[in-house]
Amino acid sequence: MDVEFAILGPLEARRGAVQLDLGPFKRRALLAALLVRINNVVSVPSLIEAAWGDAPPRTAQKNLQVYVAALRKDLGLRDDLLYVPPGYRLRLPARQLDMVSFTELVKSGKRALRGGDTRTARRLLGDALNLWRGDPLPDLAQVPLIAAEVARLTDLRLTAFEDWVEAELDLGHHARVVDVLTEWVRENPFRERLRRCQMLALYRCGRQTEALAEFESLRQALTRELGLRPSPVLERLYQAILRGDEDLYPPHLENDTVAHMSMLPRDLADFAGRDQQILDILDAFEEEKLNPPVVLFGPAGSGKTSLAVHVAHRLRARFPDGQLFVGLRDASGAERGTAEIVAEVLRLTGFGVDLPESPEERLATYRAWLAERRFLLVLDDAAAPAQVRCLIPGTGDSGVIVTSRRRLDAVESVHHVPVGAFDQSEALELLRKLIGDRRITADPVAARRLLAAAGCSPMTIRLAGARLAARPDLSLSDFTARLADDRLLLDELTVGDRSLRACAASLERDLDPSTHQALRRLGALPDEQFTLGDAAPLLGPDVAQAVLDTLEEAQVIEIESRADAVYRIPRWVRLFARESAMREGA
Questions:
Q1: Which of 90, 176, 207, 379 has a Cα at 20 to 30 A from 457?
Q2: For 32-60, how does the pLDDT look when each residue is reduced to its tens digit (9 = 90+)?
């Protein structure tokens, strides 16, 4: 895996999710000097000055060769860091250095502005600005070669921000930028282009007095500090604001009143685990890719929705026009129709009474609206491929994340991400976040037994954690003993309107009556693990294999060894099936 470098903030190098140690100051200064002059030859004297300043040792050139060799080895740069007289050149593609990605996005954004495509320009420039994490290379800024490049980058960032703000204002998004402008003006008080944008945004937000006050503040500062007056452009804007000139308002943009709306559920503060799945999803949404629909599939209680929402929050900068969470089932758990869902999305995105009459026109409007934007849809709890297929945008840069208990192989070009139970380390991490480290540290053996008794799905751990958090006097060992009792598990893992029973009942909803009945028969199994031979007397030898295949596809059971026909049914599902069978028999 290639190493990715970042200099638009503190110097960083990452291989996947792992941040690499870049070593002592001299080695980091050498790397930074090569990165700021990426794809260009940096002379040996310049590199020596970057690492040792104006008092290099006699062995500086030999030491430099040692540092270069270490960079090649440790950072995988053997073919990229080359000696080219009179110095060294580091070559990297845009995706491996944030500075290159930034400059390419800015150039593309400026081209779009020159071509009159304001919406695309706003998106590209916004993506460029989102790459910045703070002041570039703050601990290396005293190095002259680096300082000069940092100054250039900082100026380019400021210009890109001004271009982005003006694009937003041209699109009528003054409310979005008015507050962020305040901070930029504070840091660049004599930048008149910024002041003009700030005054215009304030005025359009109905804050005329503040807009005039900003002009007066600049006028006094220019007079006091530089002996100058504001430019004629600002003077004319000031007079237009005084007159209340109607030309200062943006053009009416039909159906654009909800730009950058974010209607996601909140991200869980105690979200834990899923590092590999998160990387997989984020990789599917990389800039150069075509945004394939991403389907998170897995059994009930595996945390698919929480994962989808967590990643959607992380992708907000990637989809600047907005993010929307849509449930694909109604309150009773029944599948919602595509026409109903499309109508809901259109109403939420500003169509209101202008909603087209026929379902076909609504779907066409929905796709046309998405095609012009970078919007992220989270479609939760899909019941079938047909429900999802019509909701996927036909073209454009919008993205879709779907959660489902089933793989949706019938949907074309889908990127599937399996979401199963936690491993023990992930489960323990979540439990620690829910009940605190002290109780787990006090009895780590009981904590591991608790996970074995409750199961390692996020849902069961959250229910167990909620019960323990509400009872700080209850020891882990006592609670684990309750969970280990088959008669008590379903009752103990119930918190308010959340329960294992409700989740298990929702499993039956998606099964046909015969498969539903077969699941109840599996409640008679003595353990979670079973074989085809164990199931055959309960299900019937002629149909057992077909029934188990159906339950596996529905993510109710899982197969542990296909060669040996060994299956596993979650303990809580087996106990609910047994309870349901007894109730039905009664």
A1: 379
A2: 999 999 999 999 999 999 889 888 898 99
Q: Return the CATH superfamily for domain 262-418.
A: P-loop containing nucleotide triphosphate hydrolases (3.40.50.300)
What is the spatial distance between Cα 80 and Cα 4, in angstroms, rounded to a whole number? 13
The identity of residue 358, as a single letter, is S
Length of the chain equals 586
- Residue type at 579 in one-letter notation: E
Q: For the segment 419-430, what is each residue's pLDDT rounded down to a tens digit? A: 988 888 888 888
Strand partners, 4: 14
Q: What is the per-residue burial (b if ≥16 Cβ within 10 Å, else e) of 535-572?
A: bbebbeeeebeebbebbeebbbbeeeeeeebebebbbb
The three state secondary structure string of 487-553 is CCHHHHCEECCEEHHHHHHHHHHCCCHHHHHHHHHHCCCCCCEEEHHHHHHHHCCCCHHHHHHHHHH
Q: What is the CATH number of domain 1-171?
A: 1.10.10.10
Which pairing describes strands 81-84 and 261-263: parallel, antiparallel, or unpaired? unpaired
* DSSP tag of 95: G
**Does pTM top 0.85 for this prediction?**
no
Q: What is the CATH number of domain 176-253?
A: 1.25.40.10
